[in-house]
Amino acid sequence: MRPTSIDLRKRVVAARMNDSQSMGQIAKRFKIPKGTVQNILERYRDLGTVAPMPPNSGRKPAFSQKALRRLELDVLAHPDSTLEEYRERSGKRVSIVCIHRTIRKLGFTLKKRVYVRTNSAVKMLPSSAARGAKD
Fold it and tell me: End-to-end alpha-carbon separation of the chain, Å?
C-alpha cells in the first residue's frame, strides 16, 4: 500500500490547525479513513513532520544471513539439541521463542525430540495390522 501523498498530509494538518476541524470532519472532507487522519496528526505532533515513515522501518531481524546459515548447520549437526543449547551456541541474546521461530522459518520441525526438515518427513502408510486385518 502506498503512503498518503505529502500534499494531502499537509492539507490534513492545516485543516486541524487553521480550521480547528475534528478528525471525523477532516476524514469526511478528504475522503480518507479517520485512522489515517489520526496517524498523520500524531506523527506531526510527535515528530514535527508529515513525511511518511520509511519502508520496512520496523524491528530489525535478530539473525543475519550468516547467522541463519550457522544456525541451520548447527541444527543439522545436532538435531537432538534443546532450544537453550541452540541459543547458547548461536551467541545471540534472544529469547527461546525467537530461536524456535527462526528454526521453524528455516524449515525444521520437531519430531520425537529431533529436528528434521519439514519436507523430509515421510507419511507412514497404515499397515494391515493397524487396520485390524487378520491373516
Answer: 64
40-52 tens-digit pLDDT = 999 999 999 999 8
Angle among Cα 2, 12, 24 to the nearest 5 degrees reads 100
What average pLDDT is seen over the chain?
86
pTM summary value: 0.50
The three state secondary structure string of the chain is CCCCCHHHHHHHHHHHHCCCCCHHHHHHHHCCCHHHHHHHHHHHHHHCCCCCCCCCCCCCCCCCHHHHHHHHHHHHHCCCCCHHHHHHHHCCCCCHHHHHHHHHHCCEEEECCEEEEHHHCCCCCCCCCCCCCCC
Indicate the angle between helix axes 96-105 and 65-77, nearest 10 degrees.
Answer: 90
Q: What is the CA radius of gyration of the chain?
A: 27
Long-range contacts of 12-18 (CB under 8 A, 24+ apart): 12/37, 12/40, 12/41, 12/50, 13/40, 13/41, 13/44, 13/50, 16/41
Tens-place pLDDT, residues 52-62? 888 777 788 89
